[in-house]
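The record is kept unedited without comment:

——
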Amino acid sequence: VTESFTTYHLKEGAFGKRSASDVRKLLVSGNRIYAATLDGLYFLNRSSGIAVPVSIPGLTRQTSTVYDLLPAEDRQLLISSDVGLHVLDEQTLVVRSLNEALQSQLDFTLTATGAIYRDHYDRLWIATASDGVLLVDKNLQVLKHFMHEKENPQSLAYWTAVDFQQDPWGNIWIASPGG
């Protein structure tokens, strides 16, 4: 167990709320440490100690939050952000949107996505910003769209989710601002 810490500033002069210093999620992959922040996605190369921003199509200063990261196949990462779901090729650092593949199957406009999770059956659980939770297969085919229904206590407790976990019995637990 370490008793000393090293602080890295992902962006020079960035401190506090709505900055690159406001880290939401970390993911270690090889020699890189990815940081999902309120100011986009960065990776820290441990060898050089340099933080590098990763360009995500559509992210602007007004819509810059990266909420979640999830390892995918073939050295790729899934990225959930203010502008939807993307995939990063770790070798080329090219990011491409997955929104179009999902949008054609939905009856609402997919904008921001939140928590993402891969269950034991290799399905993805994707929290939308305000339209519930999507369950999709590994080919991005929407299997189910779960929504919050005020009059239905068996529905989602809220319109979005902040985390997913699967217990040993296969149940998916969904954490949300509503419980």
